[in-house]
Each structure stands twice: as C-alpha cells, then as structure tokens.
Amino acid sequence: MKGLILAGGHGTRLRPLTASGNKHMIPIANQPILFYGLQQLARAGIREVGIVLGPIQEGIREGIGEGANFGLRVTYIEQGPPRGLAHAVLCAGEFLGNDPFVMYLGDNLLEHGLDSFLDLYRSRGADAVLGVASVADPHRYGIVELDGSSIRSIEEKPRNPKSNLALVGVYVFSPKIHEIIARLKPSLRGELEITDAIVDLRAAGAVVVAHQIFGWWKDTGAPDDLLEANDLVLNSLPPTHFSREGSVVDGASLQGLVAVGRNSVIEPGATVEGPVVLGSGVRLTRGTRVGPGTSIGNQVELRGCSVRRSIVLEGARILGPVRIIDSLIGRNVIIQSLGSSEREISVMVGDASRIRL
C-alpha cells in the first residue's frame, strides 16, 4: 500500500494571505496542515508516499525533505497547472505502479486515522473506498447519494444536491483506477474529475464502498475553516502535547492546557487560558491575555493585548490595547493600537502587513 498526498495549489483560496500562498503549510496548532496527513499515513503503516505538487509549492520540500522525520520515504511528483484530482493520479502513475494506494487531499484534517478505511478496503475486497461525512453546505463538495449502504450516485459540486454526504478527501483505490482514468474525458470545468472516474469504475463492475465517518473532519479551504480546524485540533490534543519548556514567571496566570515553547517568556500579569500553544521565543507582557483556542507561532511578541480563537504566525507583533478575536495574522505582521481604550477587531492579515488603530 502506498500513499498519495495532493499539495501545493490544488484550488487554493488563500493566496493573498501569505507570501507563498501555500495554504498546505499554514500551521494548525503550530504544525503545518500537510504534516497531519503525512502522520496519518505513517500511523496506518504506509511507508512510501508521493506528494503531488501544483504550481504553489513553496516550503513543502524544505519542510518535509525525504520524509525521514515522519518515518516515510517521500517522492515528489510535479503536476504543473492542476487539472483535477484524477489528473494528479495520472501524473503519479509511475510512482504508484500496480500497488493499491490511499489518496489524501493535503488540506484535509481528520479526527480519526485511516485504519478503518484500510480495514474496509481489505474486508470488502473493494476497488475503492470513499470517505463521506454529513455537511451543512453540500453544493461545495463532491456529493454521494446512498441507497442503504450502496452508492446510488456521485456528483461533483451539484447545484441541487441529492444528499448531504460529502466526499471528505480521503480515498483508497486499487490499481484498477488507472485504466479508468486513462480513458477519462475532461469535465465541463476542463478537469479530470475523480468523481467521474469513480462513476466509471462502478460501471465497470468494480466494488466501490462508501465509508461514513462520524468524528470531526475539516476541509481547510477558506480562512474561517482554518480557525475552526485550529480549535478542533487544539481541543483534541492529549495533555502530554502541552509541555512547558519556556519560562512562566511568578505572577503570570496559566489556566487549562497550555504549551510553552523553548525560550518563550510569560511575564507577571499575563494570562493564558488553554487550550493554547505558544511557539519558541514568544513573549507575553503584563496585561496580555491569550486564549482559549489560540495558536501563537515562533518569535511572536504580544504587549498588553488580548488574542482569542486565533492563529498568529511567526514574527508577528501585536502592541497595545486591542482585543483580537477569530483572526488569522500572517508572518511578521505588526498591529499597533495607539489609543488608550481597547478596541475589538476580527481580521485576516497577510504577511508583513502593518495596521495602526
């Protein structure tokens, strides 16, 4: 069994946020989104993983390398301009060979692992296992209509959805999918759709099974999704994850689960309410309040401000009386409040921006 992760520009909607525009490397609980998929594959016993790269790929090779830190052997596959998920599989044909494989969309997060997918694939003698979950807005996703436990129809981003069961971005395929994709024609969107390939696979008599998941699942396709994913991950991490390597000075207040990175300092009069993760070299001064549901990257400075339910990336500085909620703050941003009274803001701020209030 091999793994295939799609990363680096497959329909990203966050290009203005960071210098690279690569949402797969935006940290959730201070770890890039893409790393979670790699860890899931490794926990499932998969050792060979191909990463399909689109046009936006900054930081991926540098952050992952050959995969040794994940217990994996990673091969990078250039897709060029993305032409659909099935096209990504087509580009990875030489790497995948005749092995079955797990395809994992790199901007997806799952609460539970892949073992149940692989168990179902083996026990049913399946040629495809599709992860599905109930969603509130089915027109945004590939939608599966079931008849009992059997698949009745699959449709990509339908105008009039026949169900609320969305494809969650995790698939297990047998090698039979390759001959189907080789004959596939582009859709009206000009893409080789994985949903069309699955429909043709079923029509050819293959065993295709839907696996409904009931733990949380998050597609981090938009900024608000990133914030929700951050909160979900923070609340699911075990207590052992929240180590305190930095300095918590007498007079500082920490409540709940709080991770304090190396060389970080929480000064007297600062308050942190978990779950919160603080990276390395973070400084929280008197009057600063952080959390809950907040991730603070490395080398961030917070002075006399409040930050809740937010993600603050590396090198940012938030200075003065401002209350930040439900926000995503890019790298090396400076937000400075010059007034004496605290103002509340909710913002999505790109790298190296400057805001004065």
Description:
The longest helix is centred in the middle third of the chain and has 14 residues. With 357 residues, the chain is an alpha/beta fold. The strands form seven sheets. It has a seven-stranded mixed beta sheet with strand order 5-4-1-6-11-8-12, sandwiched between helices. About 2% of the residues have low confidence. It has two domains: 235 residues, Alpha-Beta Complex (Spore Coat Polysaccharide Biosynthesis Protein SpsA, Chain A); 118 residues, Hexapeptide repeat proteins (UDP N-Acetylglucosamine Acyltransferase, domain 1, 3 Solenoid).
CATH class of the largest domain equals Alpha Beta
Low-confidence stretches: 10-16
- Indicate the percent of residues in helices: 10-25%
**What structural class do you assign from the helix and strand content?**
alpha/beta
Tally the helices: 8
CATH architecture descriptor name of the largest domain: Alpha-Beta Complex
What does the overall shape look like? Answer: elongated
Could you tell me the strand content as a percent range?
Answer: 25-35%
Query: Span between N and C termini?
Result: 54 Å
- What's the average pLDDT? 92
Instruction: Please give the order of strands in the largest beta sheet.
Output: 5-4-1-6-11-8-12
State the domain count: 2
Q: So, the CATH homologous superfamily of the largest domain? A: Spore Coat Polysaccharide Biosynthesis Protein SpsA, Chain A
For the sheet with most strands, the description reads: 7 strands, mixed
The number of distinct β-strands equals: 32
Radius of gyration (Å): 22 Å
CATH topology of the largest domain: Spore Coat Polysaccharide Biosynthesis Protein SpsA, Chain A
